[in-house]
Specification:
Helix content: 55-70%
Number of strands: 0
Oligomer: single chain
Structural class: mainly alpha
Shape: elongated
Number of helices: 3
Largest sheet: none
Number of domains: 1
Order of helices and strands: HHH
């Protein structure tokens, strides 16, 4: 009987709330989008130079999205939405 009361009294508490998980998935999506934008641009022939590797999308936009995604991840972990 004591074991049943103990099981009834203990709730399964999650560390993060639904808001935290929502922000984590948003950050994860931005990180994935940044890596997708950064990929590609290679040449099939190693003797031919492809200037697409220095595209503004790969040099500026993709790393910025990745850093913003990591910032959102940190925010989602540290923010306490439960009050």
């Amino acid at each position: 009987m004591g074991e049943q009361k103990r099981k009834e009294n203990t709730k399964s508490n999650f560390i993060f709330g639904t808001q935290n998980y929502k922000w984590m998935f948003i950050g994860l999506g931005l990180i994935a989008l940044g890596f997708i934008l950064m990929s590609g641009g290679g040449s099939d022939d190693p003797n031919v130079f492809n200037p697409e590797i220095f595209n503004i999308r790969r040099i500026r936009v993709a790393p910025t999205l990745i850093l913003i995604g990591f910032g959102i991840q940190i925010y989602a972990i540290l923010k306490n939405f439960k009050k």
